[in-house]
Amino acid sequence: MKVHSATLAAWVATASLFNYSCEGFTTSHAFAPKKLQKSYASISPTTVTGAVRSTSTLLLKSSISDTTNVVERRKRPEYIPGHIPDPNYVRIFDTTLRDGEQSPGATLTSDEKLEIAQNLAKLGVDIIEAGFPIASPDDFAAVKQIADVVGNAVFEDGYVPVIAGLSRANERDIQRAWDAVKGAKLPRIHTFIATSPIHMTSKLNKTPDEVVEIAVNAVKFAKSLGCDDIEFSPEDAGRSEPEFLYRILSEVIEAGATTLNIPDTTGWNMPWEFGSLISKLKANVKGADRVVFSTHCQNDLGLATANSLAGALNGARQLECTINGIGERAGNASLEEIVMSLALKGQDTFEDPSKEGGGKLYTAINPVYIHPTSRMVTEYTGMKCQPHKAIVGANAFQHESGIHQDGMIKNKGTYEIMSPESIGLMRGDAQSGAGIVLGKHSGRNAVGTRLRELGYDLDMEKLNSVFQRFKQVAERKKGGVEDEELEALVADQAGITGALWSVSGLQVTTGMHGIPTATVKMIGPDGVERYVATTGTGPVDAVYKAIDQIIGVTVELEDYALNSVSDGIDALATTRVVVCPKKDVESMKISVQTDSSYSRTFSGTGSDTDIVVSSARAYVSAVNKLLAYNMRRRERLEGENGAAAAPAATEKKATNDGTAGNAILVE
Length: 667
Hints:
Elements: H1 5-15, E1 21-22, E2 25-26, E3 52-53, E4 58-60, E5 91-94, H2 110-123, E6 127-131, H3 137-149, E7 153-155, E8 162-168, H4 171-181, E9 187-194, H5 197-204, H6 208-224, E10 230-235, H7 242-255, E11 259-264, H8 271-284, E12 292-297, H9 304-313, E13 318-321, H10 335-345, H11 370-381, H12 402-410, H13 444-453, H14 460-476, H15 483-493, E14 502-509, E15 517-523, E16 529-535, H16 539-551, E17 555-564, E18 573-581, E19 588-590, E20 597-599, E21 602-608, H17 611-657, H18 660-666
Parallel strand pairs: 4-7, 5-6, 5-13, 6-8, 8-9, 9-10, 10-11, 11-12, 12-13
Antiparallel strand pairs: 1-2, 3-4, 14-15, 15-16, 17-18, 18-21, 19-20
């Protein structure tokens, strides 16, 4: 899926119109309209439209910068390697194109990587780890292209993403990484070596002293190439000895490292363990005040986001993550989860007056680009999110429980802590504007609300009838009941109120070598349940014969039509039948054009996910109309006969009494 800039601009331009506010809850500044952000000197995101090229800088002018109600990212501090002027600012390091692509089956082409990188820049990530240049010539070319294009695309507020290349701690890797990223305005080399006992002995076959020497030499070599932004990672730091980490990190700082990334490579740590590790490193590593501490957490125990936030709570000011949380094995910390957690909770939950800045954490991410970027990554990698994935999953902003739907209709803030529009998902009027999915757990309020939106203003009796049928269908149908199917149920229930007969049970057996047989149960006007089993030429014919026997009518089937309301194997079927009574003089009609007589017909519709049940309901609906017509006709005839007999009786009584007036009064 290619997400065009015009579409993104439209998303951004309307996003703030859907922010929620309710008693005791207000949205974060990250989602506030421009008029609420004046004190934050915010800037609007830019698109690639209106690009103006100067000597070596591409200035991107936004086509939506003058929009008054736009969700805008906050102004970020000046980028300085190894130092963040605002102690509350958290840098977002995206490694979707490097660690994310290491997911089995997630191979990306160079052009796809470039498009994703361009969207990451619109999203506003501080650092894009574009790849592992030594891995292959194609990887090198992709990283270089991103560095040359995205790494030189400066936004109107001066923002340009840092472009990083990963390398092992050897000169060949480092040289290759530098050659790939040096064309960017802000290039970074990210080098690493394992530091846990199991890695040093089993994988590297190196002593701790040798590992320290390799790490120091790697950082020095990167610095000698002219790179002044060097990130060092002690791989598997989560299982490394803290004292050894103090030693190796102190020495790489002395050698020139500007960012220290602490990876929980195997997802082994609990949040309190990982947070404590970050705190200890900041307290015991020499020169810790001259570098930025970073986290890189894997999701093997499902704690990657929690561990990353625990790191931020304890002083980490760069968080490494990926779109949709993709990555090796169980994946990485999810960018959207980290960003939205800080946006919603960063201003108070991380607050600590004893810390520099007070702990009111924030990022400069523009959240309205989260959803389109997530969709792009999903499409290009072929790795779909689970439906219940936080923030970007298909079900993240949908509601089926009747209690939840009732709350959402009354106030969206009851069950949503952020609006889908704030992440670029334009819900609009779909699903009642509240993500309502009509399913078996839905309540009467949700069904009634959707029907009113579709133009059906039903009284309570009819609504109850439709709701009862809705529940029966929703119990058997996966994926929710669509609008067209709900309308079919309304038609199905039309005229059902006060029906004489109803189907209470039905079972058929049929096949190539058996005789189609149907057993039908029905409840009549007297409330008694009756059942009959018959055979027929097919399952529907057998059902219709059973219905005829139970009700005791003889009708001819004039027309039978079956249609699917929606797509899919579990789609709702709608059946329409037309019947007429056999040899019923009372039901004959006279044509005003030909003066000939013909039988009166009665139609009925029925809907169900089972075509036989749908057919039975339609047939019974038509027969009920025929019976109701005959009843009304008899009542009318009896009324006419009674009215004709009344004058004779009155005249006789008046004569006997001697006064017509009294006769009339008596009558």
